[in-house]
Amino acid sequence: MSVRKMIALHPNAAGHANEPMATAAKHAMYCALFCTSCADACSAEPMDMSQCIRTCLDCADVCTAAAKLAARQTGDDAAMLRTMLTACIEACEICAAECDTHDHEHCRLCATMCRECAEDCRRARSTLN
């Protein structure tokens, strides 16, 4: 399955998709899953991981919202999308920094995914007018 193909099938897209935006949408959804999984794993750790759990869940929610906005083709609201992509970038950077403070493989993977998502969102944001 291809997010890019789905976006391109929208009547307003006329068979074309903004590749960086489609990639950002896809990776933001992946990032939301990684963050949710990391939060779940943190809840099973023997030490207090409450801050990491909160940060990961907040990041997951922001990533989910960003992915939804990035996939929409009806109408045009570049200002809203730019704001959401910026929020996603910042949330991912905050989450990556939090996960970096823990010595758990799930936190390392989450931090890596957050950094990748932030970079994809930067690329997508640069395509907006």
Description:
With 129 residues, this protein is mainly α. It has a single domain (20-125), classed as Substrate Binding Domain Of Dnak, Chain:A, Domain 2 (Up-down Bundle). The chain has helices at 3-8, 19-44, 50-71, 78-100, 105-125. Helix 2 (19-44) packs antiparallel against helix 5 (105-125), helix 3 runs antiparallel to helix 4 and helix 4 runs antiparallel to helix 5 (105-125). The radius of gyration is 15 Å and the shape is elongated. The two termini are 29 Å apart. The mean pLDDT is 91. This is Four-helix bundle copper-binding protein.
The sequence of SSEs as H and E is HHHHH
How many strands?
0
CATH architecture: Up-down Bundle
Count of helical stretches:
5
Report the helical percentage: over 70%
Q: How far apart lie the N and C ends?
A: 29 Å
Query: What is the CATH third-level topology name?
Result: Substrate Binding Domain Of Dnak, Chain:A, Domain 2
Rounded to an integer in angstroms, the radius of gyration calculated over CA atoms is 15 Å
Q: Could you outline the blueprint of secondary structure elements for this entry?
A:
Blueprint: H1 3-8, H2 19-44, H3 50-71, H4 78-100, H5 105-125
Helix pairs in contact: 2-3, 2-5, 3-4, 4-5
Name the descriptors.
129 residues; Substrate Binding Domain Of Dnak, Chain:A, Domain 2
Concise summary:
With 129 residues, the protein is mainly alpha-helical. The protein is built from five helices and no strands.
